[in-house]
Amino acid sequence: MFPFILDMRKYLVDKKEEIRSIEVKERLFDFPLTKDFIVSIVGPRRAGKTYSIFDFIKKNNLKDEDFLFVNFEDDAIKMKSREEVARMVSFHYETYGKYPKFIFLDELQAFENWQSFVYSLFEKKEFNIFITGSSSKLLSKEIATELRGRTISLLVLPFSFKEFLKLKNFDTNIISTKQEDKVNSLLKEFLKEGGFPSILLTGVNKSVFFRNYLDLVVFRDIVERFGIKNPSLVKMLMSSMISSFSKEFSVNKIYNLFKSKGMKVNKSTLYDYASFLEQVMFCFFLKKFGFSEKKSNLSIPKVYLNDVGLVNYSFSSNFEENFGRLMENTVFLELKRKESKGLFDHLFYWKNYQDYEVDFVIKKGLEVKQLIQVCYDLSNPDTKKRELRALAKASEELKCNNLLVITWDYEKIEKFKNKEIKFTPLWKWLLQKQ
Q: Which of 383, 389, 370, 367 is closest to 429 using CA atoms?
């Protein structure tokens, strides 16, 4: 057994050397530090879940003896028996003379019966345990189910605008009036390019990246995982979602559209496919606010994408025409980041029988905390009146007076129907401290 022990030790040591050699860009989120829960790092494909671990290791200057990192997709690990892998903590102790404070288990789905292994580590309550899984084989909902309340999730989305500016070496601490034009120029670039690490950190052809990304989602995340027999239908549904981003998305309408084109499709199948795409975080569905959960669940949701680059590079689209919707999708993703940090509990949109609509309703506990409209251009008096009228109406119905309109470049506080409404530019809202 002695040669094997050296071999496993070598993997643990070599992996740390490999991590040290990798250049990692800083991500602006905090890892929960707790031994009472397993931290599940979840997010869409290619958002940088594994690199977020590397960032944490480097940012906190963890020494080799402080952590243990294993990627279960590595050939060196796949070749070992379960018994060998299960003894990794012992090998760490034999190598460094102490147990690790942090255990990082990457691509955990590749390890058969991973649940019992993770439990054996967790029950000791001696380690900070972090796990990641491929979205095609280990979904965040499944992690929560399998670990039965013993896990908390850390959502990793593509780079935020604040992280994007950091990549550009733009100091956001103090922004002068002169620099505001530069910020808005960079924000336009961000709304076009999106935040996927591969787009921002490499010279990859953007159209090729997103085309390949869609194929990966279809064939790895959906077809392989769920045994789909009609990949082309999944692609058509994704195309419909991309063209409908930041709008209401009715599967029933899509079904009728496909049917009118002579396609043989089952409505329940389309609902299933839409659910699968949300599960792998290709998209997010936002429910309409309702005073009963049942009513909210039966409403037509709005659909948002995991990255705005999907709009600009996947299909022919007009960047200028989509600008307001790109702003709204960006606001949604930032709100999802805040929601994942526990800053509020639930996010909805609001719409009444007169088709007055408010983009975002933020709820904490039983109370509506804030109502948000996103509007690119308020120069048209009719447009401004429509947006503010909906906000005022929702304010009365939901008993919330914290009213915000996120604009492109307009900043003021105004009164409308005895309601105080704050207007703030998108860049300023995205950079505000939480």
A: 370
Tokens of 328: 């709204």
d(C-alpha 98, C-alpha 92), whole Å = 7
- Residue from 403, 408, 412 nearest 359 by CA: 403
In this predicted model, what pLDDT tens digit does every residue of 382-414 receive, in sequence order? 999 999 999 999 999 999 999 999 999 999 999
246: helix, strand or coil = coil
At the topology level of CATH, where does 2-155 sit?
A: Rossmann fold (3.40.50)
Q: Residue 38: name the closest of 158, 118, 111 by CA.
A: 118
Instruction: In whole angstroms, give the CA distance from residue 313 to residue 83.
Output: 47
Mean pLDDT of the chain: 92
For the stretch 282-317, pLDDT in tens is: 999 999 999 888 888 889 999 999 999 999 987 667
Q: What does the block give as tokens for 116?
A: 């019992």
Domain with CATH 3.40.50.300 in the chain: 2-155
Residues 6+ apart with CB under 8 A from 317: 243, 311
Q: Which whole-number Å values give the CA distances from 266 to 215, 228, 248, 251, 313, in the listed order?
A: 23, 13, 21, 11, 30
Above 90 in pLDDT, residue 221?
no
Angle between helix 2-21 and 88-96 (nearest 10): 80
Query: What whole-number distance in Å separates Cα of residue 372 and Cα of residue 15?
Result: 46
Q: Compute how many other C-beta atoms are within 10 angstroms of the C-beta atom of residue 78.
A: 11
